[in-house]
Predict the 3D structure of the following.
Amino acid sequence: MKRRTIFFDACFLVLLVYTVQAQKSHRRHAPIRTSKVQQLQDQTTTSQRLDCFPEAAYPNSGFSEQACLARNCLFDAANSSGRPQCYLPPNYGYELQSAENRENGMRLYLKKTDKVQSPFPIDVIENVILDVEYYSDQILRFKLYDKDKQRYEVPIPLNPPSSSKIQNPSYEFTYSSNSSNDNLLSFFVKRRSTGQALFDTSLGGLILSDQFLQIVTRLQSPHVYGFGENNHDTLKHQVKDSPSWGLFAASYGTNTKTNTNHYGTHPFYLVMEQNSSTSQPTGNMHGVLFLNSNAMDYTFSPTPSLTLRTIGGVLDFFVFMGPEPEEVVKQYTWLVGRPMLPPYWGLGFQLSRWDYGNITHLKNVVQRNLDKGIPLDVQYSDIDYMDADKDFTVDPKDFVGLKEYYDWLHSKGLHTIIILDPGVIDDQLHYQPTITGMKEDVFIKWDDGSGRPIKGSCWPGDVYFPDFFLNRTKQWWTRWITDFHAVNLTFDGLWIDMNEPSLFNTNEPFPWNWQDTGSNYTLKCPVNKYDDPPYLTKAVYRYNEENQRPSRLSDHTMCMSPHQGENGIYRHYDVHRSVFSSLPTEISSGISIQYFYLRSLYGWSQTKPTLDALRSITKKRGIVLPRSTYVGSGQWAGHWLGDNEATWHELKRSLIGMVEMNWFGIPYVVTDSGATEVDVYIPSADWYNFYNGRHITQNQQTIRVSAHLDTIPLFLRGGYIIPTQEGANNTKYSREKPFGLTIVLNSQGEFFCTWKGLT
């Protein structure tokens, strides 16, 4: 649980659900006859099998031939290919009932086939609408949802679609019914210029029920990037290895073993397209956003294909056509929000560690860096500055004089960022944030009508968690940040930790830190369909593997069943991982949605109120650095990659994380340990060595680059203007030096510039 010392140059990262129980299906299906089974098995090639028991490899999964057949799936007892042994019948899916064109899209009405029963037969969604929306010339949206019952949808603000008719879309949406496979519907999103299918559902596997939704697409190529946040060791996904990954905001650090999901949730991926005949990359890229905030997982296959599974909400997708990688990211951030511009000092070098112990040690570390001429702009303070790990306090013994020391740091041109956790201690006699929070009713409560706040265990002991989907909670949070800044510490930025939200040892006998806090209480979640859904996702089964015991969705966090928001509009099950620039209208309308749906939106919901509070105090831009983020968080904050260790492996993973969090808007980076030279691929363009101006011609696709310890390889692309400035040990002094412009011409003697003035 301890954090290690970290030096880092701030890369502020572009970070860029109302469930109603569906009508239960009581239709009975006769068992599949043996001859029919053989026919279906013959119909499905081994390479195209769709896994019907994804959790089979994990302890406590209950996998067996009988369990497979109980899911109405096919079982291959002789399977030795490494492909799924329990797999979905190829004739499961939806049939097209009717279709209608709309000005900017179309609507398709689908009905579940009655030939095969669902693997998850509880509350099957029989009637489905597929809405296709031509969002812009470069963005296509399609959404599959229940025709008969309203379901939860992710409530984040998005840039609205074009109000005029789309004239020149770069995509084409088509669909077909397969007469040889019971007229099941398939649909395709194609690039008009090449005819290549970017999203192709012809493999089947479309399943919609209340708590299990699945869609499968062939991938245009195996060159897939993105999906966060989890511990993969390569920037490009190893599709041929058929990996599975969970996406569910969880307090599992980067130093845990591979295949662990952790703090943030970003279901966005990019595919570098390839020539169909030569399999060589074409340079075209597209991106896909799966807008869903429930626990989910994704699995690749060598086909190549991608299977996406989630346990709530709807299947809502945006396809970004690019075609250049940079354009994909531009289109994505246009939709979900452009990244915030950090303050100038936020680009400087920053120092953070856990357990300085006392103010004397903190002062010595800072002074040692200054004396050695090591650049330093920002000093962080982790929870050890607090009194017994409680927010809005300063340790009265070990950190006496911290306020005055912060003033001294400011006088030297340094800035300060302090940590805050969302959980506040259960002390209703002496701790004012909890006393006022109880009075103002700001905490997440049990879903039993008792009005009791949910209590868990964290750093200070027993804690309550604020409901940031309530306007009154935002006001309470802002007031305490404001008062703390005025009286205790004049900080410049805020670092939000434990906001997945993270609790210690939920559903276990006692917390790991009970001897420190004096409390052996832990949260115990009731057994229900939200904490124990019929499909737990890879995120939970991954913990089975780690702990060698059955795990629950609420382990390490809060129970999934409570409601959140004005009049209890959301379940934590849906918004566990999310934050709003303002409350969407549906939040104010009083519709009841549980925490089950909001789980991945908790950190998101805390971010904007924290930034608003900071800016109202300092009257400056400021920085908020949360650990748990969701789609669109980048418009308000950066992202902390979380606890890591001082190892080369962790350094490599951090590079992958930084690139992914920038949504691939920077060149891909590979580091060879101990090497001073490396062969680098560069895109086709005019490039110039920054240091000596040497021209690299367009036909040089691979160049050898020297990378000595005192030199950062840097190349400038022709046709652009690069701002420059001489460095210094601190941004206070570097900003006193003039800026320059390096104008780099392309082979036609041209450069690109958009002048909007400087402020």
The domain at 34-87 is CATH 4.10.110.10 (Spasmolytic Protein; domain 1). The first strand starts at residue 6 and ends at 9.
